Amino acid sequence: MYNNIENDDNLIRIVRNGDCDAFNPLVEKYKLPLYKVMYRMVRNRDDAEDLVEEAFIKAYRSLARFEIGRPFYAWLCRIAVNNAINYLKKERNGKMQSIDDIAYGLSAKQGNPVAMTREKILKERIADAMARLAEPDRAILCLRVEQELSYEQIGVVLKIPRGTVMSRLARARKKLKEIFRQIGVT
């Protein structure tokens, strides 16, 4: 979906040869999809932005270890997901979405106020249910649903076989359904 392996590989070769500016197109190409994954995991804009930045810094510093011919986004996403899981372990209490973030989301939309309110409530309930999942379950669901990665791509990101991806997704979906049932989301 996001990855053009040949172009990414060419840019990485150029960076490895000393042109640091060649990393910028990779940042521009992947910062939004990576931000979406991080935001779904940590539910805070500033923290998600920090995690994305940290992932790019770590990726840049480790570029010599990147295997040319492999999907760069999957490698980068794995770095970011690991960072997010570590962050969430440190912040066990979790952070609630700020009122400013909620207000911004509402003011950015136009249309029917009743429909907007229902949509916002549903999104908040879904986000609350996702936050109740363990970090690995949340990560695998974000990669599949939010990023629309294939089972194979998720396997590359998480370094697990395709069959394991399928079984973990099934378990994560089952857990999410149970949480939905508990909080009354139908």
Overall description:
With 186 residues, the protein is mostly helical. Helices cover 74% and strands 0% of the residues. The protein has nine helices and no strands. The protein has helices at residues 5-16, 24-42, 45-61, 72-90, 99-107, 113-132, 135-146, 151-158, 162-183. α2 (24-42) crosses α7, α4 (72-90) packs across α8 and α6 (113-132) crosses α9. The protein is globular. The chain starts with a helix and ends with a helix. The relative contact order is 0.11. Residues 93-104 have low confidence and may be disordered.
How would you summarize what this structure contains?
The protein has 186 residues and is mainly alpha-helical. The protein has 9 helices and no strands.
- Number of E-type strands: 0
Secondary-structure element order, as H and E?
A: HHHHHHHHH
Morphology: globular
Unreliable residue runs: 93-104
Alpha carbon gyration radius: 18 Å
* Average pLDDT level: 82
Q: Could you estimate the helical fraction of the residues in percent?
A: over 70%
The separation of the N and C termini measures 31 Å
* Computed structural class: mainly alpha
Largest sheet: none
Main attributes of the structure:
mainly alpha
Topology, element by element:
Blueprint: H1 5-16, H2 24-42, H3 45-61, H4 72-90, H5 99-107, H6 113-132, H7 135-146, H8 151-158, H9 162-183
Helix pairs in contact: 2-3, 2-4, 2-7, 3-4, 4-8, 6-9, 7-9, 8-9
